[in-house]
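Study this pair:
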Amino acid sequence: MSGIAHHLVKRGIEHTQDRYRTGSFAQDGDNKPFGHPHAVAAALVITSLLWFFALSAVQYVYGGVVATLTMIETPTATAFKVDPAESDEADAPLLSNEEKKSAATEPELFYVKTKPITSKIRTTIRHLVAEAGPWARFRGLQVALAYHFIHHILLQVLTALFGGAMISQSLAAVVTAVVLCRLQMLWTHVVISTPSEKKWYRRFPTIDAGKKIILPTAVWALAEQATIYVPITLFMVFDLEGYLQNPAAFNELSPMQQKSVMLASFAVMMSGIATAVLIVFPASVTLKRVQASLLPEENESIVPFDRTFGGKVQPQVVGGTDVVSMLDAWKTFDWAARFRLVKLYAKIFAIQVSTTILFVLFAVFQVRMINGDYVLY
């Protein structure tokens, strides 16, 4: 959604610049020159920047911090001990002490699962603020900025070295992700742990810990590339490129052929969604949970988190691996947690759509306010 909206806003700005250069802003077909081109251009640029920062904040806080906490939280259970009465019989007062003891039963324990903190966005944010202060929703932001900056530079360098072909670009993306796996794991540790007195750059995971996440990181990076290659492959198989380059060719087809093209386009779109849900979703959850299993002992998690993953992870001092396997990381992420995460992503999508619509309406309002009855078309 954010990618589509970014494309539309970019096209709108380019269209505004072209119209401004040619002086072809008008109303109802008139050739009347545009009233305040500089003011409109400045307003659109500022609004676009505000929209970009708003959408980035939504994606980081909800799609990054809250989603990561949802992936690793282990709901806790509270035990209640119930002591039974000595005897439920009607003539219990007439029984001797020994008879009452023999009639009594063992105490019963009832376990009640507490509601997960990440069950709602609001409760998650409140918990973060209470535990780590008002800026806790942006925790790990410095690490994220460093990661994306280095990722961009390294990706450009590797792409130039490997060549410009698509397969080379994908290979460069996977290698970049693997090289920066320790930095990405550092971000996860900063997000899921309670505040630390150490600066973030002093909390780097060890090289040994980095080796343990190379495979999960590579699988996740390949899954990300699959969301690109699967739709593109189907796009080429269905020979839809010609209609993209020459849209008028679609109108020359018969009704049956047009239906076939529309069905093929729908299949391409659904293949991207299916790849994201069936491949990227499990790979992303698995990677985060494997990273979380390597959280140093001196760091406490900010939400309830079972470091043993149901007894499947044993410390190295007792002969264990000290890290959860990829399969166990996914299997211990139960269906209730998966549903919570899917619901969170649906909410994020709705927020992004609403935010984009709001900013588009605000941009239209700005243009009308600056230029009166003149409209841009």
